[in-house]
């Protein structure tokens, strides 16, 4: 909603600054006067949580980097020095390691919100694509950060994940060696991962600026999916959205603190408290939980398709599962934005959420079982993780490639209100009856 | 309609997880009973660790200093013959309730290598509080050579470096019960878990059957401690069971020395955040109420 600025510098100093660098004006227009739809619910507060998490991660990370040594001989011990001897080092380190997880929890909820309310549809395609770019950068940052403590899972996770690239014909090995800085995970790998782990968050911050910029051009979506039409449809960002965001963030921080202070190692893997040993492979190499759904899809491809062997197939499926998100705005053919008015889409959306969680669980299980055919026709239901993963992968891609395009053609949407105000008033008059529908809140 | 759909879905999801999990459990049992008879991948450990009641569990958990002191005694008299604890300086033993002088005296019991001196020679001297626990072997290779090829793991972090996957739905319950004692539970179960192998189970040469071991049906370490091996002067029972508990608690402390401080800070943070959230919520409510229609 870039409109006229309503900023009025009230003092001489403010006027002086405003004429030279209108930064206060920009902040005022973007975070105070900025009009937001009046019907935003708590599903719209994850953006604020993500901003908070990015700041927490950068601040704690900068201090951790002051004490960390990026050397294969000393990295593990330097992290333990932080845990034991640095003042409140344990707090910084647990904030940072659990912060990564909570960053991902927030981003998954944020993405789910976008999927539910159709936030990716025109005119917000670029906004959505920038979001996917941020998500990709987060994945890279998280992965490289996990390598830094140089524990067993760090080392072997790095070995396995960089090994994916060798699946590509011709260039694969070259890419892997380029990433590793050698033929195996070693000192050059650790050095460059540390360098990039420090760099990428600032790139994330840069893309976040673009993301917010794009958001402020198109304006926010809202649970009805109807665009803002008049002034009565909106409220000023401050105090309305600010306070709602503040409450959402505060509750989010309670859960975050629960993990930092009471179960800081729950989301990690015990093996990462064993120093990296290139001669001892852990029994199960498991990536961090936030990659597990993708890991499950990678391992679901246990068969060759023509010239594509199972390894390349798995890697393609894994990368494809993220790349596909870029095309979402064009895969969804429905004219209706919000799932609130799309009964079938809503159903498939919730199956998608459940499927993603299920895939995440499967990613942590050993790759065993008879596969999909045995699952469906052979009655091989127990412990057939491969079969379930294949089923989940099928649904994951089916949701984007089949369900989304077709639903737009066949689904009959419910009646859409003419304006946000109408929807709000309707709901208020109905309030005596049933409870107000809750926003999409997927728990990860 | 939506509620119905979501609840149906969550049910379906739970059922799916349940079926798959049941399969996993079954594999577990089978692996124990029939070992690797049919070439199926065996799952270890055969038994899940026993759950011990630890003083340091839960939101107000704290270490029992008496217990840690007993654990230290067990470590120094028994475990330290093979297991190093490289990350721990003696000075941290003050956490266990010892005075500075006691820690000094304790450190002086050890001979540590120092140097080189002005002549370029390495020399031995009595330990001081800033020294770390000396390792029983000069290097990993020597440790492995003396122990059937498998170097005994360092104990600095073992309290956090072990833990058996709890499986569904336990891992969900754990979030609410704050279960973080997988390490000490595992160590306790391992020490107390040695037993005669069941009929038909072959234990390899130099192995000792233990269904609680994470990676196989047997391990190279013989039962490390026996009843009455370590003398306690506080009247605690001198049994393997008590030893196992005390040394596990000690190793948890060694791995996470700031646990008490962490939980104490956590409580203050929680109180603050809950009050803060409440105030923000009330502010938000009153601002929205004044919005007018």
TrEMBL record, chain A:
Residues 227-418 form the Cytochrome b/b6 C-terminal region profile domain. The keyword Iron-sulfur does not apply. Keywords: Electron transport, Heme, Iron, Membrane, Metal-binding, Respiratory chain, Transmembrane, Transmembrane helix, Transport. The keyword Transmembrane applies. It is found in: Membrane. GO terms for cellular component: respiratory chain complex III. Its main location: membrane. Its cofactor is heme b; heme. Belongs to the cytochrome b family. This is Cytochrome b. It comes from Aliirhizobium smilacinae.
From TrEMBL, chain B:
It is found in: Membrane. The keyword Iron applies. One of its GO terms (cellular component) is membrane. Its cofactor is heme c. PROSITE patterns: CYTC. The keyword Transmembrane helix applies. The chain crosses the membrane at residues 265-283. GO terms for molecular function: electron transfer activity; heme binding; metal ion binding. Residues 66-255 form the Cytochrome c domain. Heme c binds at residues 79, 82-83, 221. Residues 1-24 form the signal peptide. Its main location: membrane. This is Cytochrome c1. It comes from Aliirhizobium smilacinae.
